[in-house]
Amino acid sequence: MKVFKFGGASVNSIERIQNVANILQSFSSEKILIVISAIGKTTNALEKVAEAFFEGEKEKALELFTAIKNEHLETAKQLLQQNVQRANDRLLDIFTEVEWLLHDRPVREFDYYYDQIVCTGELLSTAIISLYLNDQQIANTWIDVRDIFRTDNNFRDANIDWAFTEEQVNEQVLPLFDETNFVITQGFIGATADNESTTLGREGSDYTAAIFANMLDAETQTIWKDVEGVMNADPKLFPAAQLISELNYKEVIEMAYYGAQVIHPKTIKPLQNKDIPLLVKCFLNKDLPGTIIHNSKVNNLPPIIVIKTNQVLLQLNSKDYSFVGEHAVGKLYQLLEAQNMRPNLTQNAAISFVCCVDNKPEKIEKIAAAASDMFDVQLQKDLTLLTVRHYNNGILEELIADKKLLIKQQTIDTVQALVSAM
Ligand SMILES: Nc1ncnc2c1ncn2[C@@H]1O[C@H](COP(=O)(O)OP(=O)(O)O)[C@@H](O)[C@H]1O
Ligand SMILES: N[C@@H](CC(=O)OP(=O)(O)O)C(=O)O
């Protein structure tokens, strides 16, 4: 048993969906659980629908949704020959659910509506692709992952009920492989015990695939990307970035934690726990070797550069010259925890504490307001956090030559710099 994950970029055009079918055809004798994300940037577009709806702009929400609807109907029309009517019926069922909701007025919290609307992207993409594969005589079974993945109701960042979900995987998913070699389902989404849709956090499809891989005891998980594999920097920012053919789980979890966009940070744990190798391969050329990520030690890694933009520095200065000791720091971490905010970099001095976080304005405002009881609080925005693992002499200085350095931290294998534009 293998698990494949195709992200939004791999299915963002007719040609790319056809390419997914070609890749799958070359694995036709294998049993594969296939996790697919929403097409292209559909999730971003659905976020806009949710925002308009919640702000009471019903007409705008419906208009934005109609554009998404038409794009998907057009994609189905262009791809399908025999299954056009079936696809239209399936898609219309999914659209109708959202349109009903959009005609209501919001009475619950934003995050709840966000999940009910945004989950549609993956339902639409998988419905179209599954029917297209049938059209191409590639037998497959489509499942609604919301019948399998049970979560709590922490909307937009739901937590998996591991035991219940594993039971569903064994009882409902495993037997499907007796019928067809391919089972197709959605990444990123789940449902509560009350059948309300949930999402697992942006870019969470890698995580969905890793949970399936763990529960199905897969031999490997493959993530199909538009890059050769994991590189030592984002090739969109560093055209000279080089492929790293072998990495271990620890290295990748560190890269993801520091902000590398290539793999979702939660993906590694379920794989590491069962020692399942993760392959990152290029959907543009399936025969390229890609990157293999496993448990064993890997030596001689090149410097790995990770860039996290849109950072905010919270600068907290003691109002009366009291030390910022364990009590004050403990309180500050409680404030961060209450807002589910992770500090990306911190530094403590006698009467001050600085903390760099992702720019989430509402949450930062709440933290700053609560901390202002104890501290003078200042915010600095539009910052970038650079991390270099396995750094060599001079590499950081070269990277930040045209930037203003605010904070630098260095350990034996990692150097980090928080910078602003000059
Ligand atoms: N270290 C890295 N190695 C490879 N790709 C990276 C790295 N860091 C960032 N990326 C970016 O990740 C992109 C692929 O991820 P993404 O667009 O999210 O794919 P998908 O939506 O298909 O999951 C690449 O196009 C590349 O620009
Ligand atoms: N569609 C979701 C989930 C996801 O993982 O997408 P992708 O595989 O395209 O990053 C998102 O955009 O967040």
UniProtKB/TrEMBL annotation:
Q: Report the GO terms under cellular component.
A: cytosol
User: Per the database record, which ranges form the Aspartate/glutamate/uridylate kinase domain?
Assistant: 2-281
- Please indicate which superkingdom the organism of origin belongs to: Bacteria
What InterPro entries has UniProt attached to this entry?
Answer: Asp/Glu/Uridylate_kinase, Asp_kin_monofn, Asp_kinase
Q: In which pathway does it act?
A: Amino-acid biosynthesis; L-threonine biosynthesis; L-threonine from L-aspartate: step 1/5; Amino-acid biosynthesis; L-methionine biosynthesis via de novo pathway; L-homoserine from L-aspartate: step 1/3; Amino-acid biosynthesis; L-lysine biosynthesis via DAP pathway; (S)-tetrahydrodipicolinate from L-aspartate: step 1/4
Cited Pfam families: AA_kinase
- What Gene Ontology molecular-function terms does this entry list? aspartate kinase activity; ATP binding
Q: What is its EC number?
A: 2.7.2.4
Alphabetically sorted, this entry's keywords are: Amino-acid biosynthesis, ATP-binding, Kinase, Nucleotide-binding, Transferase
Q: Which BP terms from GO are recorded?
A: homoserine biosynthetic process; lysine biosynthetic process via diaminopimelate
Catalytically driven reaction(s): L-aspartate + ATP = 4-phospho-L-aspartate + ADP
Similarity annotation:
Belongs to the aspartokinase family.
The protein's name in its UniProt record: Aspartokinase
High-level lineage: Bacteria, Pseudomonadati, Bacteroidota, Chitinophagia, Chitinophagales
